[in-house]
Amino acid sequence: MAKNAILLSITGPDRPGITSAITQILADSGVRLLDIEQVVTRSILSLSILIESDHSLKKPPRDLKAGANSPGNGAAARHLLRDLLFQAHELGLSMDFKIVRRDEALKKRPSQNYVVTCLGPSVRLPAIAKLATLLSNEKVNIQRINTIAQKRLECIEMTLSATRPIDPRTLTRKLLHLNAEFGVDIAVQEESLYRRAKRLIVMDMDSTLVQVEVIDELAKEAGVGERVARITHRAMNGELSFPEALRERVRLLKGLPVRVLQKVYKRMPFTPGAKELIFVLKKLGYRTAVLSGGFDYFTSRVKESLGLDYAYSNNLEVIDGAVTGEILGEIVDGKKKAELMEEIARKEGITLDQVIAIGDGANDLPMITRAGLGIAFNAKPRVREAAHYSITQKNLDSILYLLGITERELGEINVKKRKNKAGL
Questions:
Q1: pTM, to two decimals
Q2: Contact at 8 Å (CB) between 45 and 14?
Q3: Which CATH fold would you assign to the domain 4-105?
Q4: What CA–CA distance (Å, rounded) separates 192 from 207?
């Protein structure tokens, strides 16, 4: 007996009991379920069900509601569709269906799946249209689009399929110009277990976790601000060897009293969203670390303030209550940051695919490019171009959306946080 695949498309106002009523009719009919997908957008339901029947239905009957019999069509299949149409009408829904070729219905889905995250203060249709066009040019199919944030920031997520493997990082770089055109950040990631199972985050401190370059602040107090700022700028753009630039700058701080370090720390502002990011990730079981080319006086205090698990930085020598202008031990440069990241991951039994690395300077690139999710955060142009992913949003916790965490889920975590503080 011939088999038919039938695609049912049901839309209308959502309310409890719709899926139950429709699937019960299908269950009672004995048809086989091939696929099902349901989405609710602003209280409007969209339910698609692909079924396979042993009953012959070569073309849709002309008058299912009236129960008319069409010669050559199986009565059982006609009755099933009539019952579904009647139930949909009773529920205030619209239902459409079409016969699908069996070989087309049973065709395997593309094995390569990806996720595109589009994030910005305002994600409008022109940006979505341009993004969709560029993806089409790359022979990538959009399977689903959903909104994961709409309030402080707007963020949409597209689920993609491709018949051939693509390099997510290469495609991300191809889409980088959308930031200049529409003010949105784009990230393409392979949809896999590792995307949803990150377990370690390592972060730079200066201009990432905090909003200042600490050594520049110290230099201002020492009266050598402009000289140090010029060296810092060249180092962050990769024009100078980081160890050489650091030693040169620190020598200019010779004689600075320790009390000035405390003064700078007290006015050192955390980046908006930094505390929220760490709070959420710790709630999700992440291990956390700050890896800084700055100084241990500050990273140790940041670690304590945020409750981080690890903190590594440079040991600024202090004798008799004053900075000597020397660095003790090995300098934490870009290479060392990457080594420390790998060392922490090994210690915690975490693969690099499960690591998030965030920074803004050239000395952060080695760890950013080795991590499963490496992000240049409000970085210099050269760093943005070299990094796998780039974020230009001002709030550090916007990175959570790249992990597929929704605005609603963040709200739930914050509600629990407030209840805990209130002792409820």
A1: 0.81
A2: yes
A3: Alpha-Beta Plaits (3.30.70)
A4: 31
User: For the structural domain made of 112-191, what CATH number should be given?
Assistant: 3.30.70.260
* Residue 40 β-bridge partners: 45
Q: Of the residues 35, 83, 185, 206, which is catalytic? A: 206
Task: Report the candidate in 218, 210, 314 with the shortest Cα–Cα distance to residue 262.
Answer: 218
Tokens 């969709």 locate to 132
Please say whether the beta carbons of 271 and 236 come within 8 A: no
Rounded Cα distance, 322 and 330, in Å: 21
DSSP percent split of the chain into helix, strand, coil, nearest 5: 40, 30, 30
How far apart, in whole angstroms, are the C-alpha atoms of residue 259 and residue 366? Answer: 34
54 counts as catalytic: no
- Maximum distance among all alpha carbons in the chain? 102
Per-residue pLDDT of the chain (424 residues; tens, 9 = 90+): 446 788 999 999 999 999 999 999 999 988 889 889 888 888 999 999 999 876 554 444 444 444 444 444 467 778 888 999 999 999 999 999 888 876 666 665 555 789 999 999 999 999 999 999 999 999 899 988 989 998 888 999 999 988 888 899 899 989 989 999 999 999 999 988 778 789 999 999 999 999 999 999 999 999 999 998 888 777 767 688 889 889 999 999 999 999 999 999 999 999 999 999 999 999 999 999 999 999 999 999 999 999 999 999 999 999 999 999 999 999 999 999 999 999 999 999 999 999 999 999 888 999 999 999 999 999 988 888 888 899 999 999 999 999 989 888 888 877 666 666 656 5
**CATH no. for 200-414:** 3.40.50.1000
Indicate which residue of 14, 28, 96, 204 is catalytic: 204
Cβ atoms < 10 Å from Cβ of 298: 25
Question: Is 103 in the active site?
Answer: no
Q: Give CATH 3.40.50.1000 domain extents, the chain.
A: 200-414
Question: What's the rounded Cα separation, in Å, for the pair 380 and 378?
Answer: 7
Q: CATH 3.30.70.260: which residues of the chain? A: 4-105, 112-191
